[in-house]
Design brief:
The protein is mainly α and 396 residues long. It has a single domain (15-190, 206-383), classed as MFS general substrate transporter like domains (Growth Hormone, Chain: A). It has helices at 21-36, 38-49, 53-71, 78-96, 102-130, 135-160, 166-186, 208-239, 249-268, 274-292, 298-312, 315-324, 330-358, 361-364, 366-378; strands at residues 18-19, 188-189, 382-383, 386-387. A hairpin with a 2-residue loop joins β3 (382-383) and β4.
Length: 396
């Protein structure tokens, strides 16, 4: 059975050393912007580089394959993972500003993905260890800033891209990564007192069935969320009438709902168990994705996206919170988290392939629907004779 996470002792505080909360949140906000950036500009790139959906899928595949590699490269000193990730993000997005076609674009996005994967994995693990009494609630709060970054991306692209070149937007954005890297390195917390031993937290490798189950769930969820967020702008431009924000309205409201949902998740986890909330969210997602695939007006699509964003929001903080209650080593937790990038890479490419060869994005919505159904089934799985479940949130 999962056990509650014990507080870290003084001799284990090295693992929680890193940027202060404000710099962690700033870095995660940039990571949210960088992760979803490709989706809102995909129609622009498709027109400029004459891409079919399968070609656009290749760009997504390159970026999220890089994210997978970044996630499995998490160093034992998590603050270094955040610093290296910010540096690689700066280099990748700066290079992407000068890309001239799908191949140079894919190469530079691959570098961006490595940096983002390092930031996301290192920050999630660091936050879960630093606030170990309520990992699910802490993860929901920090992922609120990730989702807030995602929301602002769609709005900024809609407002700025018609009047500025893509390169003139990417270079200032990339430079912010350096600002956060310097700030986070200068202001750190969790440093052990002089003479404290630098030992790792009391961790236990997961049983193989548990490792495979968590990895499969993160793989499927990474693909599910990314299929929806990265293809939604293209879907909106093609299939809905009454476009708002140049076709960005659907992605803006989806990420707005995800952001609000992450804040609500942090509060709900103080009142109910992680597994119960996880399953409710998955049931709602399974019901809403087919509805999304039938919407043909901007208002109908936006309403569905609001509901779907609220439904998707609890899954990651609840699932990763349950995982951290098993006290896996940082490398193992990072590998499981990184697998979500592999799911994002594979399923978004598959969605583009199906769209090109089977009749459009409406039909390709079967990919995220199947992922949601599989996740719901996996949430009832057992390993070692014991259900995977979290503890009930404690009241203040």
């Amino acid at each position: 059975m999962p056990t509650a996470v014990a507080p870290l002792s003084q001799t284990t505080r090295t693992e929680t050393t890193g940027p202060t909360a404000i710099w962690l949140c700033a870095g995660f906000l940039l990571a949210g912007m960088g992760t979803v950036l490709l989706g809102p500009i995909l129609p622009y790139l498709a027109g400029r580089w004459h891409l079919q959906d399968v070609d656009s899928g290749l760009l997504l595949f390159a970026k999220f394959t890089g994210a997978f590699l970044g996630g499995i490269s998490v160093p034992s000193r998590l603050r270094h993972g955040i610093l290296y990730g910010l540096g690689l993000s700066f280099a990748g997005f700066t290079a992407f500003a000068f890309a001239t076609g799908p191949y140079t674009g894919a190469a530079t996005l691959f570098l961006c993905g490595i940096g983002l994967g390092l930031i996301i994995a290192s920050t999630n693990i660091l936050a879960g260890l630093r606030y170990s009494d309520r990992p699910g609630s802490a993860l929901a709060l920090i992922n609120f800033f990730w989702a807030f970054g995602a929301v602002t991306t769609g709005i900024l692209i809609a407002a700025l891209l018609p009047h500025h070149s893509l390169g003139s937007l990417l270079i200032p954005f990339a430079s912010l990564s350096l600002v956060v890297a310097v700030g986070g390195a200068a202001q750190r917390t969790g440093t052990p007192s002089p003479g404290a031993q630098e030992t790792a937290p009391d961790t236990t490798p997961l049983p193989r069935p548990a490792f495979l189950l968590f990895a499969a769930m993160l793989f499927l969820y990474g693909g599910l969320e990314t299929c929806l967020t990265q293809w939604l702008t293209t879907y909106s431009v093609r299939y809905t009438t009454g476009e708002i924000l140049g076709g960005q309205s659907a992605i803006v409201v989806l990420w707005s709902a995800l952001t609000l949902g992450r804040a609500l998740t942090a509060a709900l986890l103080r009142r109910m168990g992680e597994t119960s909330l996880q399953r409710l969210a998955l049931v709602a997602s399974v019901l809403l994705i087919p509805v999304l695939a039938t919407r043909s007006t901007a208002s109908g699509l936006s309403i569905t996206c609001i509901l779907l964003g609220l439904a998707l929001a609890p899954f990651f903080p609840t699932t990763f919170g349950i995982l951290l209650r098993h006290r896996p080593p940082a490398r193992e937790a990072g590998l499981i988290l990184a697998v979500s990038g592999l799911g994002a890479a594979g399923l978004t490419w598959l969605m583009g392939f199906v769209s090109t060869h089977a009749g459009g994005l409406r039909i390709a919505m079967a990919i995220p629907f199947a992922a949601a159904v599989a996740l719901l089934a996996a949430s009832f799985a057992r390993f070692g004779g014991t259900k995977v479940r979290g503890t009930r949130g404690q009241r203040n």
